Amino acid sequence: MLVTLLALLAVVRTGPGHLRIPAAAPRARGPRLLDFEVIGDRPSRDLTIFDTMLRAKPYPPESPFDEATEDIFSQRQPPGLLPQPSAAETEVLRRIYAQRVSGQSVLEVVGDANSRVPGRPRPKRLAQVHTCVGSYAPFSDAGTDQHALFDKDKRLPFTDHSFTTVLMHGSLPYVTHPVTLFLELFRVLQPTGTLVVSWSGKTAPRPGNDFDARHATRAWLQAVDAADALYMCGSFFHYSGNWASLKFDEVSVDHGASSLFVLTATKLTSSAILRRRAQRVSWDSGGSKSHTPKP
Length: 295
Known about the structure:
Helix 1 crosses helix 2. The chain is built from nine helices and eight strands. The chain has helices at 2-12, 45-56, 87-100, 133-136, 178-188, 211-215, 218-222, 226-238, 270-283; strands spanning 36-38, 105-110, 125-130, 146-148, 163-169, 189-200, 246-253, 258-266.
């Protein structure tokens, strides 16, 4: 099976439409820089291919993305407002959030002017940052904890370690500064805090609907399939901070008619970061220090 998948990657992953991320030299031993866990009884085809991609092409030590000069995350036109998820998708999201929202302070990144944070128990603090003008407009004069996020150089208006949970659904394909955003999300999370990122299983423009073709970034439009999108999104975690093992989940929606991909990561404590660095150095048989993501 592994040989078959590698052969498939050799053919499919070198096509002209494939998102190319420079490969690092594989390490002969030691843990991967980004470990992950697949939730569920067995991994789907996309998750299995994604796992093979990570093993065959680990992330480079330094980020290959230069958001200041490259146009890989450019888009034809910024979206004014993101489409609303279906009722079935919303129900699944709320169920997932009910299981994974922890603590009393929640930050939600939205682009469709709605919240899916469970009402019970209601967090003591709920803040939202809006990735689209149309999402922020209804709240611009509300005097609540609502903030606009349209400038890629803009720092989130929160102090370090402000939130126990950060949620983001559906916005990532339209974000033109994903690494910068993930760095900020890491900063505002408390140690042991949780980041949950999700999107619809379809990554290519839908037939008869050119919304994605007009508004999604080039990187997402170049993704061959969900495995490509997972590999790219995993790199945003990899280059944004010291996260505990990522959990990747594909959740069925509307009895299998569609699916959601859900990525969950926990921010490491300072002591856990030190232990991880020591572990990576001990795995280096040559005696030189291994590359580790910057905190």
